[in-house]
Structure formats: C-alpha cells, structure tokens
Model the fold of this input.
Amino acid sequence: MIRPRPRSAGTPGSNPTAAPADTADNAPAIPASHTTGAQAPAIGNLGKPFTKDAVDLRTTLAHMLLAGGAAAVITLACWFALGATNLPSFNSSFVTKALSTAATVIVIGAAAGACLVWLTNRPAKRRYLLTAALYLVPAGLVVTTLAIPLAATSLYLDGISVDQAFRTQYLTRMTDHLGWADMAYLDQPSFYPGLWFFSGGLFAKLTGMAGWAAYKPWALVTLSATASMLVPVWRRITGSLVIAVAVALVSTAVTLAIAAEEPYAAIVAMGMPAAVVLARRAMRGGHGSLLGLIVFLGLSANLYTLYTGLTAIITIALAISAAAAGKTIRPILRLGAAGIASMTIAAIGWGPYLLALATRPHGPTGKAQHYLPDAGTFVPTPFFQATALGALTLLGLIWLIMRSKRGDARALVVGLSCCYAWVVASMIMALVGTTLLGFRLDLPISLMLAAAGVLALADIRIVGVRRLYPQTVKPEWSRIATRIMAIVLALGCLNYACTIPINQRDRIDLAYTDSDGEAHRGDRFPADATQYYAKIDTFLSQRLKTRAGSVILTDEKSFLAYYPYHGYQALTAHYANPLGQFEKRNDEIESWTDIKDPQKMLDAMDKAQADNGWHSPDAIVLRGQLSKGKVIPKERFSYLIADDIYPNQPNVRFRTVNFHTEAFASGWDLGQIGPFVVAVRERDRG
Done:
C-alpha cells in the first residue's frame, strides 16, 4: 500500500487526532492521507484522513460484543413480530417480495445517509446513536432479505429437504441433550463440528422451543450478530467507520446471496477476509491481531473445518513470506504459537472424536469429500459476472494487482492465491477418488474480492484524482466525490441485495412446501406423511418411555430430524460418523431382509450388537401394511438404503430393500399408523 509522507504536526493537512502509529496491529488498510505538495482538502471532515475513526483493541472488543448482542436481540424481536403477522407465502404471492425490497431500500438508504452524515457533520450529541445505527445496518439486511421472505413459514431455507434434514436432526439432538454427542448414533462423539448446534440447542432450551423450530431464528440471529460484529472488526483494520460499514454490508449481501442456507459455514466465511488481514499483521508482530487470529481459527474449527483449514494454509503462506522478507524466524515462531493455541481451542470439540477414532473400530473417514457437483468443475470468477458484484470484484481485482506488494492488499492476494490453488487441487484430487470440496470456495473468493473492491473505492477517494492532478482538482470537489461514491456504492449494494430473495427462491420455496414438525406447511397446503409423525411418536413414547437413548431403524429422515430418537443408521454416508461404520451397517441391515423367522431376526440384531457394539433397534418405522395389528404373510416392509456411488453425480443412490413381515410376527409390539408400520421390540424396560 502507498504510505503517507511523514509530516510534522504543523504541516497543512495534518491531523493530530488521526489513527495511532502504523504498527502491525493498527496499520490502516487504506492510507491515512496523501499529498503531492498541495494542501489537503479541509471541507468539513471529508478531506481529513479516514483513519480518524480508529479505536483501540479494548474498545473494538467491547463494540463487537455490544454490536453482536444488540443485533441478536433486534433480529429475534423482528422474527417474533413477523411470526405474528398473516403474510402470504413467498411461493404464491409477490407481497413478501415487495415488502422485502421496500425494507431493503430503507435499510441501505438509511445506511448511505448515515455514512454521509458521519463524514460531513458528525454532531457530538448524536455520535453514539449514529455509531450504533451503523453497527446494526448489516443485521438489518439479514432481516429484510431473509426474515421477511420466510415470515410465513416455521422452516429455514431448504425446509427439511436436501442437507437441512441432517442439520435439523443435529440441532434437535443438542436441544434434547447438550453435549458433543453424534446426531444419529448412540454413545458416539460427534464427527460434525458442533459449536453452532450446541449453542443453538442452548438457545432452544432457553426459549422453550423444539430443536426444529429453533433452527430458523437461530440461523437469523447468528447471521445478524456476525454481520454486525464485522463492522467494529473492519473499523479496527481500516481506521474508518464508513469503510467498515461498507465492507460489512457488502460481505453480508454476498454471503446471503451465495450460501445463506448453511449458516454456520456462512458466519465463518464472512470473517475470512478480515482473518486473512489479521494473519498478515499477526505474523509481523501484531499482538492483538495474533489474538484475533487464534480465536478465529479455534472457534471456526468447531463451526466449519474446511474454511479453518484454508485459513490456516493462508496463514502459513503469510508466515513464510514474512520470514523470508525479514530474514527472521520470528514469524514462524508466531505461527507455531497461533497453531498451538488455536488447536487447543479446537480440541474442545474435536478431542472426543479424535480420541475415539484412535481407539475404536471405524469406517472410512473421507466420505464427506465424495462430492463433485457441476459447480466443482469451474474456477470461480465473480469478476466476469454482469452484476453489481461482478463490477465490484473486478475493481477489487484490479486494485489488488496494483497494490499487490503493499500491506493488507498483499495478504488478500496471498489468500486468493491459496483459494484458487485449493480449487484446482480439488479437481485434480478426483484422480485419487476424492475431492477437497473446492466448490465451497466460491463464497470466500467472492468475499475477499468484494472487500478488496470496497477498499479500492476508498483508496480512489483518498489518493485518486487529486494525487494525479493536484493543481486541477479543487478542494470543494472532495465532498462531491465522496457523495457520488457513496451513492454509487449504495445503489450497487441495493441492486444486488434486492436480488437475494430471487437468487434464493428455490430454497425459500422449499421452506414453504415442506411440512414442519407440527405437520404444517407455510403455503397452507395439506401436509405430507409428516402428519402421522405425532401419532408415531406417541406410540413409541408410550412403549419406550424415553426418546433419548431409544434407537429407531427408519428411513424417514424427517422423523429423526423432528424427534430426538437415535437412529440405527445415518441418513447418508457423507454425513455419517465414521465411528458408526455406515457401510458395514448397511450390509447388516440388508442381511436381515433374508430372515423370515422372528427369533432369528432378534438373534441377528443381538449378534450385531455383540460383535460391533451397535445398540440393536428398539423399534422400527417402515412403510408397509398390517391386518388388524397382525402381519400379513408374504407381505413386505420396505426400507431405503443409501449407497455412496461417487464419482457419479448424484453421489447417493437410494434403493429399496424389503423385510419379510413374518420376521416380526412375534417379539414386537406392532401398530399401523397411516402408511407406516411401527414395531417396538418387546424388552424388559424396568
């Protein structure tokens, strides 16, 4: 980055109240000021250094907590208020889309106006109120673009379809019993990072909601809180509240448009550009930056490990670069300290699983990487899109090329280089039967480029035309330039943000067409087989006495998502805990379909438990028919087995296997509920 020329306190254009010294922690991402012999503009605050808003580390941490807490409370209040309305469903009316657009216009318009007031006329009496409002702007965008379109449904994006079934199941498990337990298998530590689900389970307990019902508000709350916390983080990095708001607002819009359906991954991705900048500063001696990097890596490892691993690789590259440039091993020592400290935090969630993996039998550990969709065959190039995001990221790319050897821009260049290397490596890894899930990097790449685009606009505003033509550009033009840039950025963000509900339309539609845990659909059409779940739960509860600890063999993924029973088998291999030995269980289940004798069926289940340590099914819920509570000879109970068929796409094949009904003629308490046969094993339950 171009550094300001040193000036004495009395030099025209100097600002004794500007940012602190350019240390590793406080070096602004945008230069504090620039002159070429001409006096700097002094119209209002527009000509003063943008780093006037710099705050110390303690203040930054306090602002992060206050901003995140306030955003969470306000978002929760908005969710509650919207739930009390009687809005039509998004998939059958344009009313909610119109309300979403209008609210988005108000939020972004208010943000642009507040930024201009902050730059031109910052009244002391309203300073704190204005700061608070700017901190909460990103949270407002979450409400207008997600909460309003989802107002008439209890479900979140994707409903209970696709991957939301296992995510909802996990949150239901944590709501029933806080801990690091696996979402499906009994007595197994969690394989999937659980911090978001653990805290979500605590949120559900505190609010008295069922796990599935807490999913949507918890997703909205965490997205809003994280988005608002970005503002003080970027304020610390850039020294400018206005730039910080712009980066946070753009980052929020990009995240909501690309990957809002996976909230725990989204909140990690939103922080990655800032984490990359902090990593560079940490490797060059910034103590506050080192602390921030450690916390980010440690917590993100318990949220979404893919992004943690990528950030760690970027940090390693930055440490090596700093060590080579300074011809010192200090960056390597700081890297080691960051690694040890962050892994200590990560071990809170990962420790039980890794210990069990080292001491217990398990299946393949790489099934989660067996996924290569069409998006994974392309290199993300958002800067070639004919959208507002495309224009902003193109500007960011140009700026990074021009500033690639200076300051924080260099960190973003290294970060993007590592991201693109990961994407290409993921494609090559297909040759050895796996991937690195490179398609997931579309979001971090877009976020880094978008952040660079905002920093580029700020850089142009500070050092652009006036630096090139100091005798031509009048000081009065500074205010006009700022207003124009604020308006253009606001309109671009507005244009992009208003398309978020449309970009997410298919996912929003599923939230309305899927049935929730109370068998209600957001579009008010009749529910599917979910309408029988409450009766199934009653039948099971009366006989099993408890949900937690009771193991059910069923292919009804939504049932296990809504009720906290343990599953004998996970939904698919890709999200199954390796400790559960998914494929071996599939083989065992399929072998039971050859059995007709009831005692042999019970013996086979008990033998599987004795040989493998798998708790045998306490009940089964399968599709089939009974006659007056008795099995019908030569009939079948059907069960869907999920096979991992990677490298094919789709990568999962569901095939039907059929159990002989005679195998359940005795030893089971049978019931017919809708299309389902519910069989509870007769045991002495005390």
Notes: The longest strand covers residues 636-644. The radius of gyration is 28 Å. Confidence is low (pLDDT under 50) at residues 1-23, 31-49. The longest helix spans residues 330-359.
